[in-house]
Design the sequence.
């Protein structure tokens, strides 16, 4: 059978730009649920027809346990259920995208802030499916790993999973880490917990400000509401861009976040510095708008610059300049959120005479420009 090669190549090239597309014996298969078959007339391709392929729903088991964050558990399940409804509306006759359910090791758990929740018991995760692990309440970032380690039955269950796709949100990453699943892999967690994850599990490549990290059969997501981002990413993978975008629009859940960096608030990080470094940091904050002068800083504490840098790095694993830059960005963020001052005025107020230099620092730190940050986080001022 003769085929119009030029037409075939152009259609195939366009289809291949869609993630997950492949060709099988001349039929273009577009993941996850479509095929494009050529319609041949007089030996030439006249058009292409789209077909739904029958695909069993993707099973999503959300692991419940005592103290898990209920909003993450139910948020994932609800968002996937809404995606099923959106898909049914946009693709009449198609099979549901997902089969979500809440499972637990014991069959009954007490999520944070709720009474007893009865669940199905954990079992083998279907081949077409994955396990999702939510986060849990932990007010002290220094104790988050210990809180995770106390969930021994859940860790034992995770340790026994072989070849299963596993996702985690926020503190849930620590359960995967305790089970040894993430050794040699990249992962993220809440930006607030990331330093402890890196300290406690040195064999994990911790990407502190990433929103979602996928590495092999594992996916990890950032703080709390990143459960929604992880669910939307799953919807996109199994339902396509149109279903993910429509689900985002229906639920008013933004689908435009790519990083935790804009949300980082250094004043919330645990204080681990020594008294000497506390004093140095206080001096830098007091002289926020002054030109950075390492010699003057060392003279203020009657030490050499070499000694100052060594003692500061020993206590913080950083430098006075890096600390000052972080403080300046934090101050600028507050001014962008709460004041009507121009970006030029804010730049000068936090110690920069060159707007381009400060803009580069701000983008490097937060992932967005000062103008974009103001649009996203501006607090409405009273009239």
Sequence:
């Amino acid at each position: 059978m003769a085929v119009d090669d030029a037409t075939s190549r152009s259609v195939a090239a366009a289809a291949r730009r869609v993630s997950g597309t492949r060709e099988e014996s001349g039929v273009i298969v577009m993941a996850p649920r479509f095929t494009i078959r050529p319609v041949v007339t007089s030996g030439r391709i006249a058009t292409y027809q789209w077909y739904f392929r029958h695909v069993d729903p993707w099973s999503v088991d959300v692991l419940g346990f005592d103290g898990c964050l209920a909003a993450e558990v139910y948020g994932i399940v609800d968002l996937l259920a809404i995606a099923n409804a959106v898909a049914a509306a946009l693709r009449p006759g198609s099979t549901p995208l997902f089969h979500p359910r809440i499972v637990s090791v014991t069959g009954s758990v007490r999520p944070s802030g709720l009474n007893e929740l009865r669940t199905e018991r954990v079992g083998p995760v279907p081949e077409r499916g994955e396990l999702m692990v939510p986060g849990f309440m932990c007010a002290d970032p220094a104790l988050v790993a210990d809180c995770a380690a106390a969930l021994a039955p859940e860790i034992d269950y995770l340790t026994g999973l072989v070849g299963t796709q596993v996702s985690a949100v926020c503190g849930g990453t620590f359960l995967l880490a305790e089970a040894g699943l993430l050794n040699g892999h990249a992962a993220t967690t809440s930006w607030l917990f990331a330093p402890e994850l890196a300290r406690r599990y040195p064999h994990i490549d911790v990407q502190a400000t990433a929103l979602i990290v996928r590495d092999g059969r594992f996916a990890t997501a950032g703080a709390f509401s990143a459960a929604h981002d992880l669910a939307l990413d799953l919807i996109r993978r199994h339902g396509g861009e149109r279903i993910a975008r429509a689900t985002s629009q229906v639920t008013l859940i933004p689908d435009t976040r790519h990083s935790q960096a804009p949300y980082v608030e250094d004043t919330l990080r645990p204080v681990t510095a020594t008294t000497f470094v506390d004093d140095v940091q206080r001096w830098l904050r007091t002289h926020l708008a002054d030109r950075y002068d390492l010699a003057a800083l060392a003279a203020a504490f009657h030490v050499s610059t070499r000694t100052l840098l060594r003692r500061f790095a020993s206590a913080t694993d950083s430098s006075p300049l890096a600390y000052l830059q972080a403080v300046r960005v934090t101050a600028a963020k507050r001014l962008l959120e709460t004041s009507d001052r121009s970006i030029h005025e804010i730049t000068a107020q936090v110690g920069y005479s060159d707007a381009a230099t400060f803009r580069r620092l701000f983008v490097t730190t937060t992932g967005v420009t000062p103008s974009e940050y103001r649009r996203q986080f501006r607090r409405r001022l009273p009239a």
